[in-house]
Write a structure and sequence with these properties.
By secondary structure, this protein is an alpha/beta fold. It has 2 domains: about 1-30, no CATH class; about 35-135, Alpha-D-Glucose-1,6-Bisphosphate, Chain A, domain 3 (3-Layer(aba) Sandwich), CATH 3.40.120. It has 5 helices and 7 strands. The longest helix is centred in the last third of the chain and has 18 residues, at about 125-145.
Length: about 150
C-alpha cells in the first residue's frame, strides 16, 4: 500500500489468485479504489451491531456495489451527483432531519434507500468510530493468535 504525500489518495497492490494469473498475466495487480473502499465498508459492516440509525453517502460515479451492500445490511444510503459539495450537502440535510429522495431533491440526490429521520449516523463521517471498530478487530485477532504480539 502507498499514498501520495498528503495521504488523500492510496494505492493498494494485491496478489492475484493462482486461478486468475492467466487472465492478469502478472502475480500482482492494482486494486481499484472502488473495490478497496467496498472491502473496507464490508469489513466495517461485519463488526457493527446496529444498522437502523446509520447511512452512507457516495456519489453517482462510485460503484453501485456500495449501495447494494448497504441495502443488504439494512444501512440507508444517499447517492448524490458528483462532488464533495454535493456529498456534504446531502449529509448535512440528513443530519437536519430531511428525508432525501430523487423525487424530492432532484438537484442533489441521484438515488437513495431508506433515508428517513432515524438515520443520523454517517458511517463514513466518523473516523473515530471507524478507528474503534478496526482497533477492536485487531484486539480480537491478537487474542485469537496468542503467540503473536499486536503491533501498535
Amino acid at each position: 500500500m502507498s499514498t501520495d504525500p498528503d495521504a488523500d489518495r492510496a494505492s493498494i497492490i494485491v496478489k492475484v489468485p493462482d486461478a486468475q494469473k492467466d487472465v492478469y498475466k502478472t502475480p500482482y495487480t492494482l486494486l481499484p479504489a472502488d473495490e478497496a473502499w467496498l472491502l473496507v465498508f464490508w469489513y466495517y459492516l461485519e463488526h457493527l451491531k446496529v444498522f437502523e440509525d446509520k447511512f452512507i453517502a457516495y456519489s453517482h460515479v462510485t460503484t453501485d456495489a456500495l449501495g447494494r451492500l448497504a441495502r443488504k445490511n439494512g444501512v440507508g444510503y444517499v447517492k448524490t451527483w458528483v462532488g464533495f459539495a454535493m456529498l456534504s450537502a446531502a449529509v448535512k440535510a440528513v443530519w437536519e432531519g430531511q428525508f432525501l429522495t430523487r423525487d424530492r431533491n432532484p438537484g442533489l440526490v441521484f438515488d437513495s434507500f431508506d433515508m428517513d429521520a432515524k438515520r443520523v449516523w454517517n458511517i463514513g463521517a466518523s473516523s473515530k468510530a471507524t478507528a474503534s471498530v478496526l482497533r477492536r478487530s485487531a484486539d480480537e485477532s491478537a487474542r485469537a493468535r496468542p503467540g503473536r504480539a499486536r503491533q501498535g
